[in-house]
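lol ok so funny story. i was supposed to be doing the assay writeup but got distracted and ended up predicting the structure for this chain instead. priorities right. anyway since i did it might as well share w the group, maybe its usefull for someone
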Amino acid sequence: MGKLDGQVAIVTGGSSGIGKSIALLYAKEGADVVIISRKEEALKEVCKLNPDKITYVAGDLTKTESIKKLVEYVKNKFGKLDILVNNAGWCPVQPLKELKIEDYDKAFNLDVRSLVNITIECLPLIIKSKGNIINISTVGATHRGPNLSMYLGAKAAVENFTRCWALELAKDGVRVNAIAPGAIETNIWNVTDLSPEEAKKHKESMENAIPCGRFGTPEEVASIALFLVSKEASYVNGSIYNVDGGAGAP
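and the output, tada:
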């Protein structure tokens, strides 16, 4: 018996990193999991790891048509939705002096607008199942750092949405929580606008500031994502869980 037997979950950004680990753990615990990202080949590789429980829809979450396609797929295949994990995001590493308004548009379209859009589209199903919403934030939303203003600003909005939605949806039996990872060993460090040398320097400076002395793993975030949608967390609502090696403690 798995902790999520009979449940259906959507995990955005499920082709790699934290999203992939959450999808795999949910599937291991018995959930039927639908993952989405733009990278179809990567999505296929994740599905191969548990083909009986994980399926995918390829699409750009900044496009409403992709979100509607995803929700229709879930409705047609499963007829229900219990869990929505809003994980997809983009982290530009740029000083304000070099930013263009297009950088703001890209960060907020994926990190904020698409999160709101998919939540609105999924909400009738989530309310019907009295389910769970998890938003992936970052410890940087409350412990700011330089050169990350677009990402941290977007995630600060995500945390406020989390708390507001928790208040609004509690009477419907829906719980809304967020996870705020610190520095996690994922591919996000390879898709910034920094040069390889700058990315390495940025990563090392962050690692040196972590009390535990290391980056976390996606699996360590996934374990919290499992707890938050489990019966053990039935009284947890509107919370932000830091998974950061102590970086947010000071």
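The two ends are 40 Å apart (CA to CA). The chain has a mean pLDDT of 92.
back to the writeup now i swear
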